[in-house]
Amino acid sequence: MEQPELKIAVMNQRQIIQRWPRITAHIIAESLGYATPESAALILKDAALRKPNYCEWIDACYKTDARSAVEGAVRNRHYHQGYMASYKQALAIVQHVNQGHPGPTLASWF
User: Fold this and answer.
1) Residue range 30-49, pLDDT digits in tens
2) Does residue 42 contact residue 53 with C-beta atoms inside 8 Å?
């Protein structure tokens, strides 16, 4: 049986967003919209592979530890509501990307 880490290692950002849209949206919400769907996918991939992630948000808040960021996003999922942390808005953006549209380029809320 193939290890899950090995499967995600060969996946690209779009495949990760398609496979885990809700976790991707929670990472966006946890970042207060700083992460885009594509950057959230890379954060999720690095977390699964236990690799550092040098996104400014991850570097500044988690000292490049993507796994801690993803764990925090999952742990705090019930608090992802309101203006900057809206899970519903983040999920709408992820679904838009999953329909083949381009995602935001700077940050998810802009």
Assistant:
1) 999 999 999 999 999 999 99
2) yes
